[in-house]
Write a structure and sequence with these properties.
Elements: E1 3-8, H1 17-33, E2 36-41, H2 52-59, H3 67-85, E3 88-94, H4 102-111, E4 118-121, E5 124-127, E6 133-139, H5 153-162, E7 167-173, H6 181-196
Parallel strand pairs: 1-2, 1-3, 3-6, 6-7
Antiparallel strand pairs: 4-5
Amino acid sequence: MSTILHITASIRGEESVSRGLGQKLVGKLAESQGADVVTRDLSKNDLPYIDADRFAANLAPYADRSTEQHELAKIADELIEELQQADTIVFSVPVYNFSVPATVKAWADLVARAGTTFRYTENGPEGLLTGKKVYLTAATGGTPIGSEVDFMSPWLKFFLGFLGMHDVEIVAADGIMGEGGEEKIAEAHEKVEQLVA
């Protein structure tokens, strides 16, 4: 059975447009694929920021870690395992101040582990999380996705590619605080319908 990992980040709970789009997409994908769903809600603010000790623990070989390092690396191990086990990943991410929420960056710092999710080669870094389909359901108040002031979607796509995930499809409800916001949300929901159909 395949696994879908749904990573959400909006602080708006059930009012979140990006989360609502993601939940709809995940539900339709799970139904069509008969997949299990794992959800990681980054808005809970329960991820630690990386520091020198945690960075060293994350890079230490598992068998060589001290007891303290095992504890420090535990959350990163969990996040990485979620990515490794997933066949499909759905990110539901809003744009906060033109970029990703801080919790998404904290997540990225924990899952980028040399030798596990990517490796260095003579030709440069190589992502190790290959063969996965990724969807990004995004929402913005005013920032147009794909514009010169959108630093969220290009950064996230680059980071995922760095880890080996290059097949990324975006469903965006952007600029929804302006005129025609409800129509833009409806159009994004229609795109979700078309993706799964």
